Amino acid sequence: MKKVTFLLCLYSIGFLFTISSCENRKTQEKKEAKTNTDTSAKQSKPNVLLIVVDDLGYSDLSPFGGEIRTPNIQRLADNGLIVQQCYTTPLCAPSRAMFMSGMDNHISGIGAMPPFQAANQYMQPGYEGYLNDRVMTLPEVLRENGYHTYMSGKWHLGHEEGRRPFEEGFERSFSFLGGGASHFSNSFALGPEEVIHTVYYDDSVQVKKLPDDFYSSNYYADKMIQYITEQKDDRPFFGYLAFTAPHDPLHVPDEWMDKYKGAYDKGYDHIRQVRMDNMKKLGLIPKDLPINPGSGEYKKWNELSAQEKRVEARRMELYAAMLEIMDLDIGRVLEALQKEGKLENTMIILIGDNGANPKDPSFYKTDMKPFDNSLDNMGKPNSFVSLQGAWAEVTATPYSYFKTTTGEGGVRVPLIISGQGVTIKGVEATNKILGTDIMPTLLEIAGAKRPDTYKKNKLAAMTGTSFNRLLSDKGNTVRDENAGYGIESLENKAYYKGDWKIRFLMPPFGKGRDWQLFNVKEDPREKQDLARQKPEKLQELLGGWNEYSQKVGYIPYHGGRAYTVLGPENFFKAKLDSTNKALIEKASLELQRGGE
């Protein structure tokens, strides 16, 4: 009897244990299912790597016809979409404001690139010189929607307290606040007006001394790799890799000094022809398009002395080396993503901010005495040389002009979209994509919605249009052909509608008073001004420009530079206080008395 009772007890315990085990297993399965669902949900949102190249010529990169070695960028293009018609502004900060806000730069705060605001524009809505309170930045929205947000590189959208990257949505950041500087650890400013924002931050801590082996492109890539590899969870990330290369000064490490030696000894027209031939093979331009002879503002190659040719060739050798270094650094970031198992689920967007820079260092009011710009020293840390106009025109092949202008070479930029979500490959030549389209596209891809208010401020509407559907549907139209759009920076203006464009150029490249009319489909080089032949079309587009300028709050330049009127100390207060109001009113009165 005792034995039977004992066996019954054992049976009962076993039965209960079995039930308990089943329940535990069901609970565990539910937990695992939930975890898998959560992880799947997180992983269903792609990582995003946005790469911005500074002052990049349209035809520099190999996917766009360039002779410069850029194999990693080529790999992105081979596995993605090349957008043939992408437009930004002709200057760095306004373009980057487009990328980070999804709205026209005149709305977001960079109506004029600081410190070039006119006296009448100073601290007016849209001309604050930083991303204003009408903006919720791309990283802010993505971070609110579960993304990690990382930045490494150039900001140029505000150095003031509350306007720096670590305060504008980036969880981790190594940021350069200004427009340009030495690419080495000596970090000299481009000029006296640049000093105040020639500053680096490591997250929220100002960097007092850069590492001795600092070189901008290498270090920016190192920091992005650090952020990616240190991430321990499965949440998606947004990475903003914003190079300062190949912005002047042209600098390369010693081992890169002669990597392109002799490559440019045949001069401007030879490289133009090489690029034209390549672009025709790639289907980027019509096969019968003639070479662009340039503006005529600069000496031809055969008009240069032997010494001038050596100096000019050296400029381009250094510029090319800077781009190849940047390409290798992009390759290192891609390799890190591959090792982390994240590359397959990452969308990569590479874009230029504007055309190549035609200016020499005198543009920045730089004291050149400390620099050694001899031929043998060009490219070293104590040199300050730039690409200048003749080569800048070549880099824009086949288009006209360069940075600062609204010629196609100033505002039409390379755009490559590759990786997760991009199923259409090849050249997209139909749709026009704007810099403002980046943010709404990425928000749609991430399933993220931007609120109407943020930090108690009412947000302005984004002016960009998502091109997400274009990435998987070749026949998709991003915006209506008759939907015009405008571009303006420092009174250089353009307005596009369909195949037509009007252009207004300030001296020395234009008269500063006449609008020109071009059919950019038939005449992409902008060589035939049709303003007199087609006055009705000119008036139609001028009406579009006026409507655009009123809509975005464009303020015409008047009263001289605010920096000159106010002086550095008052200007950089970034406040329209009683002192600054009085100084601006005085300048305006003096201008009126002068009869201008």
Brief overview:
The chain has 596 residues and is α/β, with parallel strands linked by helices. The chain has helices at 2-44, 71-78, 92-101, 105-108, 138-144, 216-230, 268-282, 306-339, 389-395, 408-411, 438-446, 535-552, 562-566, 568-571, 578-593, and strands spanning 47-53, 80-83, 86-87, 148-154, 172-176, 200-202, 205-206, 237-242, 346-352, 415-419, 426-428, 433-434, 453-454, 457-458, 485-489, 492-497, 500-504, 515-519. Helix 7 (268-282) packs parallel to helix 9.
Give a written overview of the molecule.
The N and C termini lie far apart (120 Å). The N terminus is likely disordered. A hairpin with a 2-residue loop joins strand 15 and strand 16. The protein is globular. With 596 residues, the protein is α/β, with parallel strands linked by helices. It has 15 helices and 18 strands. The strands form 4 sheets. The chain has a 10-stranded mixed beta sheet, with helices on both faces. Helix 6 packs parallel to helix 8 and helix 7 runs parallel beside helix 9.
- The helix content, as a percent range, equals 25-40%
Radius of gyration: 27 Å
Major β-sheet, in short? 10 strands, mixed
**Uncertain regions: pLDDT < 50 for 5+ in a row?**
1-42
Q: State the distance separating the first and last CA atoms.
A: 120 Å
- The mean pLDDT is 92
Count of helix runs: 15
Secondary structure category: alpha/beta
Tell me the layout of helices and strands.
Layout: H1 2-44, E1 47-53, H2 71-78, E2 80-83, E3 86-87, H3 92-101, H4 105-108, H5 138-144, E4 148-154, E5 172-176, E6 200-202, E7 205-206, H6 216-230, E8 237-242, H7 268-282, H8 306-339, E9 346-352, H9 389-395, H10 408-411, E10 415-419, E11 426-428, E12 433-434, H11 438-446, E13 453-454, E14 457-458, E15 485-489, E16 492-497, E17 500-504, E18 515-519, H12 535-552, H13 562-566, H14 568-571, H15 578-593
